[in-house]
Amino acid sequence: MGDLLTHSLDLALLLNGGIEEVSSLLHTFVPNREVDDAALLLARFANGSIGTFEATRFATGCRNRNSFEIHGSQGAIRFNLEDLNRLEVFDRSDAIEIEGSHKVLVTGPGHPYVSRFWPPGQIIGYEHTFIATLADFLESLARQQGFHANFDDGVAVDRLLEAVGRSAQSRSWTKVSAAAERTSSVA
User: Fold this and answer.
1) Which of the two ends of the chain, N or C, has the fewest CB atoms closer than 10 A to its terminal CB?
2) From residue 37, how far is each of 3, 153, 173 by CA, in Å?
């Protein structure tokens, strides 16, 4: 919970806004271990949407998977960190004969960092994400603007983790204290 789930919760707050209530299950598979091995979570977002989360160290074959799916009435989008250069997209407005999910290479000419790293269409690696984060941080300092993730974002995730723990203990839906949400959009 305190390791893998934190990343998913932070990302959810960034992409979908605050979470008001959670219902969770924590489980330890290895006897005498002091941390949970699996966390399952249902969430009710402030915007009326719902979400499911799973974090486990027992996902055989998943080396560095951190994935999400967002489904709406007009389409869906999926991302998996193990394939970080592509988004899987479903657009309901596609013609029926081509309807279906398709992968989109996101490192093309429209990518905001294309001028910093690579010619359009070239893939990036995990290490490039740290370089981009550092560049964003330095630029936000130069512009005297806020940067995310910041201390308040960490507090929002911590409030969620506390609610997840209380929910697992009580085996019930639990309100998140001071509705956890990120303070504003990414700089």
Assistant:
1) C
2) 10, 25, 21
